[in-house]
Amino acid sequence: MTEYRFGSQVVTGHTFASTSSCFAIYNRSPIVEGHSLILPIRPAKSLLSLSEGEQALFFGFSRTVTEFLLENYQCESFDWTIQDGEPAGQTVPHLHLHVLPRRPGDIDPGSDWYQQLMESGIDISKRFRLPDETLFAISRRLKENWEEWLARRD
User: Fold this and answer.
1) Is 95 helix (H, G, I), strand (E, B) or coil?
2) In angstroms, rounded to a whole number, what is the distance separating the alpha carbons of residues 129 and 135?
3) Tens of pLDDT along 3-23?
4) Which residues lie across from 23 on neighbouring strands?
5) What is the pTM of this model?
6) Contacts with 42 (C-beta within 8 Å, 6 or more apart), sequence order
7) Pick from 144, 111, 152: which is nearest to 26 by CA?
8) Helical segments of the chain, H only
């Protein structure tokens, strides 16, 4: 099993998709069902520190994973966001794209998910965290679905 890192943490147990340059993990503190992160394997701190080629691979993989998540969670809409730099809310110095599959009414209509994130505290240690057993079970199911989904696409 390939070892992936997100900042100083090893995240191999909840990786569900990968290429030679990027990987996807289920968010330990999901805002909505399906909330996942896309990361470059090389621990670049900022999107601007990726070369144009690396950016193309990153966003191409992100699009593919988003298509998979939309189908897997039966959604038609999604949010993408990157918090690039501490003033923007980045808490782990490793570039990551949040992918949130969206459904009507899944978040309080008077707010958005980023506002909810800020209100719950940007410090992940203060936010709800899935127990490891739940996180790994979701990730295993996603990995199985990912592999089947890729096979159907070929």
Assistant:
1) coil
2) 9
3) 898 888 888 788 999 999 999
4) 18, 39
5) 0.88
6) 21, 54
7) 144
8) 52-72, 113-120, 132-153
How large is the average pLDDT for residues 149-154?
Answer: 90
Side chain identity, residue 99? V
**Which single residue is written with the structure tokens 């730099």?**
85
Q: Which amino acid appears at position 127 of this protein?
A: R
121-142 per-position pLDDT tens digit: 445 556 778 999 999 999 999 9
CA distance 71 to 74: 5
Burial pattern 23-59, b for ≥16 Cβ within 10 A else e, equals bbbbbbebbbebbbbbbbeebbeebeebeeebeebbb
> Looking at domain 5-139, does it have CATH number 1.10.238.10?
no
Active site residues: 96
Give 105's contacts (C-beta < 8 A, 6+ positions apart). none
% residues pLDDT > 70 (the chain): 87
pLDDT digit string (tens) for 73-123? 999 999 999 999 988 888 889 999 999 999 998 887 666 655 655 555 445
